[in-house]
Amino acid sequence: MSLRHAILVLLQDQEASGYDLAREFANSIGLVWNATHQQIYLELGKLSEQDMVHYRHVPQEGKPDKKLYSLTEAGRTELVRWLKKPAGPARIRDAFMVKVAGGSLADTQVLLAELDSLAKQRRERLATFEALAQRLDESGRDDNVYNYLTVRRGILDQRAWLQWAEEVRHSLEHRSADSTAS
Amino acid sequence: MSLRHAILVLLQDQEASGYDLAREFANSIGLVWNATHQQIYLELGKLSEQDMVHYRHVPQEGKPDKKLYSLTEAGRTELVRWLKKPAGPARIRDAFMVKVAGGSLADTQVLLAELDSLAKQRRERLATFEALAQRLDESGRDDNVYNYLTVRRGILDQRAWLQWAEEVRHSLEHRSADSTAS
DNA sequence: AGTGCGTATACAACGGATTGCGCAGCACTT
DNA sequence: AAGTGCTGCGCAATCCGTTGTATACGCACT
Question: Which residues form the Transcription regulator PadR C-terminal domain (chains A, B) (predicted)?
């Protein structure tokens, strides 16, 4: 149970709407913790009931009204409490990796095609993160060290994946060349 | 819904008990897909009802009896079907990363201690994977390319994390030196 | 006029996942 | 003699998460 804490962390710097949070989860933080808007709205509702967050209603023109959430004292206290206790191990669900593990039954061409498509997404993400890192580096590095470190993690992650993808491609192409030749 | 497929992949090579699978999920595959024994037993039950897997009861001496599961034809067909359709995006839940992102509210010493403990685990895992990779490399590389690639992923992942950890340590130590000096 | 996209919020239903508990025997240590 | 840890299986409750659906307005495109 800790989508709540991810939300509290995001609200720590600035107030945000559910929609804003959803966008952040889809981008930067999404690499490390993901959530859909339904989940976020639900959790914001719960947090609000428990007085961890507070919102003000902001009418808008041309756009639907929104609710801007911010941390309450109780929310900040809860966040500090959570930060102190050890985090659980990281969990991942990478379906593509499972497919590679079961690769002997798969069609190599299909796997290669999927690999390319995933690699493309990763490269785009890498570019986004690198641009972001540079911007953070140029402005005050000290104020947002934590932000910077988060982005660095994203960069290293993408690079590691892409390097692995090269190895996979090499092995698979080798294999497919074999089977084509036979 | 695809713990089922991870299980089918594991059963593809060899028959295994629920307990065996749980160990595999805790180790090698665990980096990419995790599951507890309760989940595994439940899923094996469902798979068995649907005739995707089949088990034989094996009495043992000195240990509890066990059920050794293996794929049926239907299970293999389902696996092949699943391998063809594109995998969803990888999902992660890394609580420690969330903590780093919210680091400005955290106690630097606590974070550093946790970083060390996680780094230790990662280093151990890295050693295990590297040993495994070497063994696979020495025996026939071609038979278990897929297995080898899975392990490679684990290695690259650990290395990327450890590199990131170095960056984090550097930043945090810098910070803590500042605050100690002031 | 109709279609699709972006902003913004929300409910309902189902299924997947975690947590807590329980049983059972053997081996090894303290 | 009691405690700890490993092998092995399983149920029940609850919570988390996904998917589907809904509403509402403005803007741009065809």
Answer: 92-172
Is A80 within 8 Å of chain B by CB?
A: yes
Q: Of chain B residues 112-131, which have a CB less than 8 A from chain A?
A: 114, 117, 121
| Torsions phi, psi for B17 (to 5 deg) | -90, 165
Are B76 and B99 found together in one domain? no
Per-residue pLDDT of chain B (182 residues), as tens digits, is: 689 999 999 999 899 999 999 999 988 888 889 899 999 999 999 999 999 999 999 998 888 899 999 999 999 999 999 999 888 888 889 999 999 998 888 899 999 999 999 999 899 889 989 988 998 888 876 768 898 999 999 999 999 999 999 999 999 888 766 655 54
- Determine the distance from the C-alpha atom of residue B29 to the mean position of all C-alpha atoms in its chain, rounded to a whole number: 4
**Do residues A100 and A175 touch, judged by C-beta distance below 8 A?**
no
Q: Is residue B89 part of a domain?
A: no
Q: For residue A24, how many other CB atoms are within 10 A of its CB?
A: 17
Quick one: B63 and B114 in the same domain? no
Contacts of A31 in chain B (CB under 8 A): 92
Specify the number of domains making up chain A. Answer: 2
| A117 C-beta neighbours (distance < 10 Å), count | 12
Residue A89 lies in a domain: no
CB-based contact (8 Å) between B96 and chain A? yes
Residue A102 domain boundaries: 95-181
